[in-house]
Every structure is written in C-alpha cells, then in structure tokens.
Amino acid sequence: MAATTNTMIIRNGYVFDPLNGIDGDVTDIFIKEGTIVSDLSGAYERDAIVIDAAGKTVMPGGVDSHSHVAGAKVNAGRLMRPEDHYKSARIKTDITHSGSGYTVPSVYKQGYDYAAMGYTTVFEAAMPPLEARHTHEEMRSTPILDMGAYMVMGNNWFIMRYLKEGDLEKAAAYVAWMMRAHKAYGIKCVNPAGVENWGWAKNVHGLDEPNIHFEITPREIIRGLAEVNEMLGLPMSLHLHANNLGHPGNWELARDSLMITSGLDAKNRSDLEWAQTRESARRKQTVYLAHAQFNAYGGSSWRDFCSGAPDLAKYINQVDDVVIDSGSVPFGPATTMTGDGPAQHDLYMLTGQKWSNCDVEMECGSGVLSLVYMKSSPVHSVQWAIGLEVMLLVDDPWKTIMTTDHPNGGIFTSYPQLITWLMSKKARDDTAKECHKWAYDKSSLGGVDREMSLYEIAVVTRANPARTIGMAYRKGHLGLGADGDVTVYDINPEKLDLNDTPALRAKLARPDYTIKDGGVVARKGEILAVPEGRRFYCRPYVDEGLEKEMHADLKEWFKYYTVGYANYPVPDKYLTNPVAIPVNSPQETIALVRR
Amino acid sequence: MAEILLKPKGSIGIMVEAEVIRPDLFAGKKKEEIEGLFLWQGPKTLPLAEFFDVDIGRAGQTDEGKPEETSIIIEGDVSRVKRIGQGMKAGRIEIQGSAGMHLGEEMTGGSIIVRGDAGSWTGMEMRGGQIHIKGNGADHIGSAYRGSWRGMTGGEILIDGNARSQLGGGLVGGRIIVAGNVENFCGIRQSGGLILVRGSAVRGMGAEMNGGTIAICGSIKQPSPGFVEVGREENVKLGEIQLDGWYTKFAGDFALGKNPKGTLYCREG
Fold first, then answer.
1. At what angle do helices A251-259 and A309-318 cross, to 10 degrees?
2. Do B148 and A80 touch (CB under 8 A)?
3. Of A16, A445, B43, B188, which residue is 20 to 30 A from B7 by alpha carbon distance?
4. How far is B257 from chain A (nearest CA, A)?
C-alpha cells in the first residue's frame, strides 16, 4: 500500500478551478501521491481512494493570504483575553489536541478550524524580524496547514537609512539576507515611516511627510521597498498596510499609495517548477493592499463618517497592477492586532478597551486591542458595508481577495457568512435591516446588485490569493503538478438556493471533505488526519561582494540591538518541512527546485 | 412541587464539576436518569450516583417536568462540588451546607439558597434570579470572568455574612447586598446596578467604575483616590431600600476618564 498513499480520485463533481478556466464542469480529479495528475492507472487506479462528488462542488483547497495566526502579537492577544478562551474550548480526540480561543484560538485549534472549513494554506501577515523565532515556533505547532510569513520592513532602521541614502542595492542585499536569516516569505510594509514616529508618540499623516530622525517619507519607503521587491524578483509583490489606517477620509491616501508603484514591472524570479495552468499563474500586481476596508473611509470625522470604497474601487478598476484583500467586518467579537502601533492607540482612545502596545527595537511596533463589532453601532455598520463594497465594486475578481484580516475585522470562521453576503443580495439586505441605518445610508452597498458566482468565490478564496502571493506554482488550482489540496462542498450549483442563506452558510462552514496532499484531513468538520504542513520561505540571492558591504553596516549598527548578531537568525530547526524558494539566482546556478 | 434530595456520599478528593445539578435538567427525569448524569472529576467523567444518594420522593419521577416547580435540596456540605446551578433558568436549589466555586454562574432565573458559605465566582456573570448566601461569600462573587469587563447583568445576590475581594467586579445590572464586610476592589469596573455593603470595606472600592451605584454603611479603610465629593444626602433611597442617616456622595472613578458616571455613597461619622 505504500506505493499508493495519498492517491485519490474525486469523481463527477462540479469543478471550479479558475486558473484553469474550469467553471462548474463535471469532471474527475486525480491525485497521485499528493500531486494532481491527469489520470491514474494500474495499481494506483486500483488502490486509490474514490470520493463520489456527484452533485457536489469541488474547489482547490482554500488559501488565506492575510491572517494573523502566529507570532508575538497573536500571543499577546491570547494572553490579554482569558475571557476569549473561557467559552470556546475544544475537547481533545485521539488524534487532535485540545484547544481554546474564539477570536484568537490556540495554534492547534486554528489549524483544525481552518482545515474543517476547507482551507489548507494560510500565510501569517506580519512577522517582525525579532519575533521570527516566536512566529516560526507557533507555525511549527500549527497542524495540517501549509504556511509562510511576511516580514515587517516598513519602519526598519536599515531600510530607512539605505532608502534615504538612495542605496537601493544595499537595501536589496539587506532584505535578501533578512529573508534568508528569518525564513520570511514576503515583504510587509506597515504604516511606513509612521510606526517609527510612534516611538515619539507621533505618527505621519501624509505620503510626503518625513518622519523624525530618518527624515524619510512614506512615499519614499513604499517606492523603495517595491523596487527592492522587483529587483530581487520575489514571488509576492510588496504587501502594503497603508498610512492613516482606520481614520475617516483615508481613502484618498490609500489610492495615492497604490499609485506609487505604478510603472514598475512585476517580476517573479523564483526558480521553481510550475504546475500547469491555462491562465497565467504569475502575479501581475506590484502592490498588494492589505485589508482595504480599513483604508476606504470617507468623511472627515466619525460624525460624518461614510464609505470611501466607491472612490477607491474606481481607481482599482482603472489599473492592472493592484490587488487588495478586503479585511471585511462580519460583526461580533474581534481582537485587533497590527504592527501599526499608533493606529491601535487611536482605537484605544476611541473605545477605552483593553490595549497593549509594543516597540520592537529597530524594526517596528505593534498594538493589540479587544473589540466587539456591533450591528447597533453606526460606524461598525458602515465598516460592514465597506468590507463588502471593496469586494463587489471592484469589477475584476482577480483584483480582490476575501479576508477578515483575522482577527481584526472579524474571525476567519466567519468566512462562510462572508461568502453568503457576496453571493446573495438578499443576505445583504437581510443583514442591513438588522444594522444601524448608516449601513446603507452612508455607503453604496444598498444599490449594488452584483452577486458573486461560485466561480468568482473560487477566485477570491483560492486562485487569486495563491496567484497574488506567488504560490500558484502549486496552490490555488487543480492543474497538473499542483498540490492535491481539494475542498468538496455539499453544494449542488444547479440547485443553488441563494435565498436559503443559513443552509448555504452551514455547507460552506463544514465541507464534505477537506483534502490535503491527496489525503482526507477533515470530513464534515471532523478532523480525520493531522499531517504536518510545509513552511515556505524565500532565499533571495544577491551579489556576494554587495552583501559583504551591507554586512559591515549591519554589524556596526547591531550595537543598538538587545540581541547579539549570532543569535539573530532563525535556525532551520525551527521549521517543519521547510520549502526554501530560491530567488534571483545567477543564471549559471539555476537548477529548478523539485519538491 | 417536585423535590429531589441529593445526599453527599462522604468526602470528595479532587473537586467535582457538577453543572448538571440544575432544576431545569432534573425536571421530568426518573431517579435512575438523574443518577446517570455525568459529572467531571479531573480528567474523568463519573455518574452522579458516585457522589450522591438521590431521593426523588414517593412519585419515582419528578412530575410534569416543569423546571419552575422543581426543587433540588442538597443535604450536606458540597464545598468541593463546583458549578452547581450553572446556567439554570428556573426552579430552586437549597444547599444545607456550604457550596463550592461557580455556584449559579450565568444563571438566568430561579433561586439558590446556601445555608453555609459559598465559594468564589458564585453568581459570576448571572443574568437573573436570586442567590441567597446565609454564611460568607468568597472572592469574585457576582463578578465578570477574568479579563472581561461585563459581569452580572441582572438578578440579585444576598449575603448575610461577609464577602472577600472583587465583589461585583464589572457589574452591569442587578444588585448585590452584603450584610457584613467586604475586602478589596468591591465594584471594580462597575458600569451599572447596585452594590450595598452594610459593613465596611478595605480598599479599592469602585476602582475604575463608570456607572451604577455603590453604598457603604460602614467605613472604607483606604478610599480610592479617583473619587470626588459631590454632596451630602440624608436617608438615601436606593430603589425600595432606604438608608438611615447622613451619607457623603462621591462621583468616580476619575482615574478612568474625565466624566465618569459612577456614584459612591459612604455613611458619615
């Protein structure tokens, strides 16, 4: 039997595989030893597990490209919220750990909950370099999921110094070394220039406002990091958490931030073997805006607060080099956590809720706050509307990704609820009736008739998150050579009833099968197997001489750190099943990485 | 009225968690069914009959299954049994000895009377009904769970003896009346409801409160610094309760914000 492990045939399902242009065709999916193949024969065919998916919806395994699931601030959220854990406990089974936590679950519960919902790949959205060990430790303990983490760079002293000096090459050398040292997957930029100012109880409020000491502007940092990103040719574009997050009237700044990278070429120089797809699986964007909802606000104060999403969407509709994720607000308890220290302080002043704040030496900062989004609140109701507008008003689903910025806008287990709102106008209208009237009065959502199809849902929850972060070489689709990650929902697209939203929600929440690498990990929400996931990170190459020069600077400034240089990098032993992606290798050394 | 007698069978080692001892769960059940309900002891689940003799009276079955007409009488000391009456909606529980922790936690209706003392977290986050403790109460009576700022929202807790610290923490609604003394941080983070202490308090009274009322008939050994005197009142009326004599009225806690809406009455003299 050893020859046929993780071999499977999923028969007669309605398949939704946007990267291969498959829109609900009834077809079979074959998985051989964990990888998608075109057919099975011989012993493989004979011994394959066969799943009858007739009358059911088959999609690639879910991919979450922006979620806060591992690291110091996530753990701070757990520690400061015992009340969040008390009432949501998970009992251990023969193969699973116990766990607790509603908005910030324990690592085990997170892995099980994602898998039970049909997701197999989740990327941690913000890893401060100094907290990389902690982040990797938590990812190592997260069961089932394939993961990676984006490194926070927007207020890093070395980056700000090199960019101010105009030394892009050294900045690139620094980023490359940091990604290798900390096993990071992509570059995250959080409130560029602003978080550094937070050390002096200040922030920046415009793209051309220089910060204290470094005297660099957000615009210079965004442009510089995006150029570094494309110089190295990272799989993912710059991931931007824009300035002025969470403030009324911030949509214009978000739009202007997205313009900064226009004109750059999206270059993915990773040396990988790509699975087959009909559509291009390579990213087109040069900037990926995080949680657009929090940066699509109109008005000038909380009194005249309104949606700025139509204006932001108008810009995104005109360009091809932007992808956003939504950061939608599904109501209910949340724990906001971000590297944007000043934004969290503003939220604390507004709400008076429990708040924690942290300064990460020469790198970044963070804040954590507990919050409940209420339908009775006018502002929260508009936030709910904006979180759906940014998805529905951007015409091309290949520019949007569905998230809740877990656990900031809401928790990831609300995704099924979110999908029903995107798919059904009636579901939105029903919720709007329960909300404060601002929900429709201060947004355009009431006039939006668009209802996403299952195909579009597959784009915004699978294909596009994978393509945007450069994981579509193996994730987010069912082409030959892709990972055998599949979700089978008990949804018959021919008999889809968009008026019965509770039933749709229940079916999306508990798929019939979640399949990871050709093995069933969850069946109707019950965890059946607990394989260990992979940890992806990039290993960018730069000229050795350049790197040496950069290291001289690095060592000189290392005196400001509380850690020693030798203890700074994360050793390999912190990663289970690491997958290092070579990037920007010199031509003569390229040997395609086989898995 | 159906009466179910539970008699503890000797002493208990590891504390038992007995959230199934609830009138609304007992109602309409046969003796054997009640005996078969599971309790937690450490990592094990064991039947109720392991710890209690069950006497259901002549009928052999509790009548009708009406929770509001079901009464559970525990004849003895259950101070090592936690969570009795947790989440109960109706009916009555009488404990003739002392009760363990989390008694009547999150209850929404019905009544509990304890002839002895009650453990910590009694009436935690309760929403309705009444708990009457004839003896003393321990810590966190009628408070919020750790980390939460929303405690008891309705109902009533009466304590004939003393209570320890954090009484009514995060109180949102309902009332707590203590005949004796309290210790530290009574009414911390209170935002509504009433706490009346007939005796004295040690310190931290009403710390970070932002609403509701606390009245104390004795004295506060170390008053909280964030309270400001706003006047004097004679024969203060709190609902149907009338307090005799002169009281100084304070507003607070200004340590929390610029315009706190908490009221603290302290008897003069």
1. 10
2. no
3. B43
4. 9
